[in-house]
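User: Predict the structure for this protein chain, please.
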Amino acid sequence: MGKTIISAFDYKRFRKENAGAKLLFVAHRQEILFQSVARFREILKDPNFGEIQTRRYQAASIDHLFITIQSIGSRELIKKTAPDFYDYIIVDEFHRAAADSYQDLLEYYQPKILLGLTATPERMDGKDIFKYFHQRIASEMRLPEAIEKRLLVPFDYFCIDDDSVDLRQVTWVNGGYNESELYNIYQRVNQRRIQTIARSLKHYLTELDQMKALGFCVTVDHAELMSRSFQELGIPAISVTSKTDEQTRAQAISRLSSGEIKIIFTVDVYNEGIDIPEVNTVLFLRPTQSLTVFLQQLGRGLRTFPGKEQLTVLDFVAQAHENYSFEDKFRSLLYRSNRTLHDSIKENNLALPSGCHFQMEKVARSIILENIRKSVINLNLLRRRLDAFEQATGNTPTLESFLEYYQMSILDFYGNNRSFSALYHKKPLQKTITRRLKNLITLNAWHLIDAGLDFFRDGNGFKTERELAVYYYSFYDRPPAKAGYTDMTKALEVIRQLPDERQEIVSILEYQKLHISFVSDEIELNVNAPLEVGATYTRNQILAAVGYFDQTLMPAFREGVLHLEAEKTDLFFVTLNKSEKDYSEATMYEDYYISEELFHWQSQNNVKRDSAVAERYRKHQQNDHDILMFVRENRKLGSITSPYKFIGKIDYQDDHGTQPVSFVWKIS
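Assistant: Here is the predicted structure, written as C-alpha cells:
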C-alpha cells in the first residue's frame, strides 16, 4: 500500500462526510498523475473519476483534477478558481513544496484538508514546509515498520567488495563526490569492475534469468557504458537517462516487466514517483551521499508484487573519501536501537525488520566499520551536518530534530564526551559536566525523567531524597561534603544555574522521554526506590535509588551482589557476555536466560551450598525478602559503560552445585 492509496482511502472517507467534495491532486510528473488517477478510480469504484491536466492534456472538468505543478501556472488554474474551491488538496512528493513553483498554490488555496505525501520528509531544500501543517507530521511510517507490516517486501542486502575502485582522492565538492571524476575512475577500471558485478549477480541471485533489475549510475555516460558492457556479456540491458525520450522510457519499463530485458541502468530518472513493482534487484553502482536519494532508489525495488518474496540489493563498496559516511543509509534500514551502529555491524547483531538479511563481504565490512568509527568522532562532519540541516529544513536545529533528521543515536552523539551546545553554539560546557552527560543518555525511566525535568526545566525541588540522589550521583563521584557542597540539592543547584548546561540536560531528558519504548509495570518493593521494571540505569544510579549512596556516604562497591539487610533486599548485577579482557577467570559466572521466564544465575565463588547466604536466597519468599535483578548484555555499550536493565523481582525455583551454587530463578 503506497502513499497514493492511503490518500485515496482518506479522500473516500472524506467524500462520504462531504458530498460532492472537490479534489485537487498535484504532482510534478505526468506519469505519476496517470498512476494516481488509476488508484483513485479503483478505490472509489468509479472508472470515470478524475480528469488529468498537463501541458499535453486538457481536462474537461476541474472538479476532481489531477494536475502537474507546471500546468497550474501555465493553465492559470488559480485565476479560474476561488481560494476555497477545492475541499481536499493532495500534493505528492511534498518535499518539493519548498520550491517557488509550489508557493502560489499553497499560499492561495484554503482547502478543508491539505494532505502532503512524501517518502523523504528530510528533503526540504532550505525552507520550512511543516508550517503548512502546524509543524506536525500527521502520520509517519519509517522503512523498517513498513516492511514489518508487509507494506513493502523484505530485502536481502549484500555489501560487495568493489576492489578495483579507490575513491579516497576524488575531489569532494558541494557535499559529494565530483561526478565527472567518479565516472573517469569507473570508465578506467570498467572491464575488471564488470567482472566483479557479473560474478556477484551469479553468486547472490538464485535465478539470474528471473532478474528484473535497476542499476543506479553516476552519469549518463556511465549508464550507457554499463548497458553496453552488460549486452556484451549477453545480459539484455538498456540505459534510461534524461536524454531518453518519453516513449522509450515507457517501453523500457514494459520490456523489463515482461522479461525482454534484465536490467535498466539509469541516472536520476527513476528516483521517485514511478512504480515498477516487478523490480526484484537493485544495484548501487555509485556511492550515494544523500539519504533521500538512497531511500528513493531502494524504494523502487521494495514495492510488493504477486510472487515477489524479497528484493535483492547489491551495494558495491569501495574505499571512500574521508567526508563520505555510510552511517546514515545503513541506519535507515534498521529499527532504532541503543546499540551503536559500529557495534551492531561488528557483532553481526543488526535490528533488521523480520525477513530481511544483511551480509558484508570481508573487505567491504572492514571499510564500512572504519568509516563509521571515524565519522562518530569526526567533529567536522557533525558540524557539516548541522549546516546541511539548516540549509535543508530552514529551521534551527535542536538535539531532537538533529538526531531524528540523521537517524543518529543519542549514544553515538554523546558517547565521545561532546555536547550539542559546544557543537552548535560553539559554547563548550564545563568539562566535568560534559563527561557526566553520558549518564543521562541511557536513563529511560518515566518517573525519574519527569523528576529531572521538574527540577532542571521547571525549577521545582525533588519530591524524594532518593530521586535527588540518583541525579546527584549522575553528576558527582563523591558525597557532597567531599565535593565541596553542604548537601546534594546545593550541588545540583550549581548546575541548574548554568544556562547552557541546564538546557543541554533538559534536551537530553526530553529526548529520552520521547523515545521510551516500554510501558512501566507497577511493582511493590521492600526497598523504597524509584525503580521501574524495564528501565535502564547506570550502576551508580541504582545504588543511589536504593539508598546505598546518600547525602553522606558513597561506599565502595565492586561486587555483583548487594545485600541490604534493613531493607530485606538483595540486588544482583549480571553481565551476560563476559570477556576475558574484562573479567577474571574467577568471575566468569555462568549467567544466562533459560527462557523468557527462567534465568540461570551462579553465585559468587565464596558462597557454599550450606551457607547462610545460599539459605537466604532459597527461603527469600517465605521470609518476605526481595531479590532484584539488573541485567546487561555487555560491559561496554559503544564507548561508554553499559547500563543495567531492571528485570524486576525474581523468585527461587531450584539450585545445584556446591561452591559456587547455581540457582534457577523465575522472573516475576
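The longest helix spans residues 499-514.
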